[in-house]
Amino acid sequence: MSYSVGQVAGFAGVTVRTLHHYDDIGLLVPSERSHAGHRRYSDVDLDRLQQILFYRELGFPLDEVAALLDDPAVDPRAHLRRQHELLTARIEKLQKMAEAVEHAMEARKMGINLTPQERFEVFGDKDPEQYAQEAEQRWGGTEAYAESQRRAAQYTKEDWKRLQAEADDWSERYKGLMAEDEPSTGERAMDMAEEHRQHIGTWYYECPYEMHQCLADMYVSDERFKAFYDSMRPGLAEHLRDAIKANAARHTS
User: Fold this and answer.
1) DSSP track, 43-70
2) Is the pLDDT of residue 36 over 50?
3) Helix, strand, coil distribution of the chain in percent, nearest 5
4) Is-contact 38 7, C-beta < 8 A?
5) DSSP classification of residue 26
6) pLDDT for 204-249, tens place per residue?
7) Is the Cβ–Cβ distance between 51 and 71 less than 8 Å?
8) Alpha-carbon gap, residue 195 to 201, rounded angstroms
9) pLDDT value at residue 183
10) Exposure of 64 by Cβ count < 10 A (0-12 exposed, 13-18 middle, 19+ buried)?
């Protein structure tokens, strides 16, 4: 059984012009011709075309494809092994590309529009998207979340670096305050709690005292937040919670 050039083009998803070109350069010469001189392709030709298209998909130039297929020292099983190796490598590469795209999608969702190099420069080994999905599930319908998204989408690399620097400076000073045994209800601790609230309001969303106290409770009740703050200094999460509540009390009483 044989097939016309139009039929083969339809089977393979290529153009008739492509098949004519393959014939002209000797890469895929039809096994038969009709009485009128038209090209007719056999099943063997279709097998060769499948291999050609496979190597072309992997980016091989046509001259290298011809060399691979016409090498008398290579048997069909060797071709299959070679194709399997190439496909496995391609799958691994595509999986890595897909993971990179997923990370980029998450970053866009959070509004962090930075290149990977810029993100590493700003955040180091910390992942700013670690809890992005959970945050959206918990607060996605709130105005605070929407406002945070709007602001973050406008930030440049320099904005993120300044934000991070402010947070790091605050952390160092709070650790020093605790090292000096400042009580959580002391003036310095409450002032730093107020600074913490204003940092949120400046960079993310308006944070009234009531909301700030809710965050403070979460810093202790949520093990991940507690671990984050306690990694700065043991006991910092609870100390900060108490300082936030004392600060709210002195401003709202």
Assistant:
1) HHHHHHHHHHHHHHHTT--HHHHHHHHH
2) yes
3) 70, 5, 25
4) no
5) T
6) 888 889 989 988 998 899 888 899 899 999 999 999 999 999 999 9
7) no
8) 10
9) 96
10) exposed
User: What one-character-per-residue DSSP string does 164-191 give?
Assistant: HHHHHHHHHHHHHHHHTT--TTSHHHHH
Residue 184 pLDDT grade (very low, low, confident, very high; cuts 50, 70, 90):
very high
Q: Please tell me the distance from the alpha carbon of residue 113 to that of residue 71, in angstroms, as a whole number.
A: 50
Instruction: Copy the structure tokens of residue 208.
Output: 């009234």
Q: Check if the beta carbon of residue 240 is closer than 8 Å to that of residue 174.
A: yes
- Judged by DSSP in three states, 140 sits in coil
190 touches 246 (CB < 8 A): yes
Average pLDDT over residues 64-75: 80
| Residue recorded with tokens 């496909």 | 87
Nearest to 52 by CA among 13, 89, 88, 90: 13
Q: What is the DSSP letter of 31?
A: S
User: Tokens in use for 128?
Assistant: 């700013």
Residue 41 CB: number of other CB atoms within 10 A? 26
**How high is the pLDDT of residue 146?**
72
Provide the 3-class DSSP secondary structure of residue 176. Answer: helix
Which one has a higher pLDDT value, 77 or 92?
92
User: Longest Cα pair distance anywhere in the chain, in angstroms?
Assistant: 101
Distances (CA, A) of 115 to 91, 112, 125, 206: 24, 9, 15, 28
| pLDDT on residue 85 | 84
d(CA 1, CA 23): 19
Identity (one letter) of the amino acid at 114?
L
